[in-house]
Amino acid sequence: SLAAESPFFDRLFFGDFMEKNMSEIPIGDVEYEEFANIIKIIYGFDGDSLTGSFSSVFRNIVLYNLEMNSHRILELADRFELKIVEDGVVYVLLASKSHSIHEKLVISDQFNLTFLK
């Protein structure tokens, strides 16, 4: 479940909040497609990826060509406390030839990603 991957969603779904009883929970400042990309990264397009599998997360970032959206994906991963997504994006950035060293360092600094520094 999404709650298993994210303390944010665990609190939202199972914490003492009114949202846990809602059938639909609005999430502001995120487009549908952006959130769908996060779900695809974790679970794959058809839900076949194993939750918590780093190799699946990495594969899905590459498979869905989401590398170019890495900055926004990192913003959402940070906001929703999705460490496995953050780690996958970092790994893709390390292997990336389409991002310059400067771009990688700027992203690293902005998100305090010591792994990229």
From TrEMBL:
Pfam families linked to this entry: BTB
Domain BTB: 1-43
UniProt cross-references to InterPro entries, sorted A to Z: BTB/POZ_dom, SKP1/BTB/POZ_sf
Top-level taxonomic group: Eukaryota
CDD domains the record matches: BTB_POZ_ZBTB_KLHL-like (cd18186)
Record-linked PROSITE patterns: BTB
Gene3D superfamilies tied to this protein: Potassium Channel Kv1.1, Chain A
PANTHER family according to UniProt: BTB DOMAIN-CONTAINING PROTEIN-RELATED (PTHR22744:SF14), HELIX LOOP HELIX PROTEIN 21-RELATED (PTHR22744)
The name this protein goes by in its record: BTB domain-containing protein
Taxonomic lineage: Eukaryota, Metazoa, Ecdysozoa, Nematoda, Chromadorea
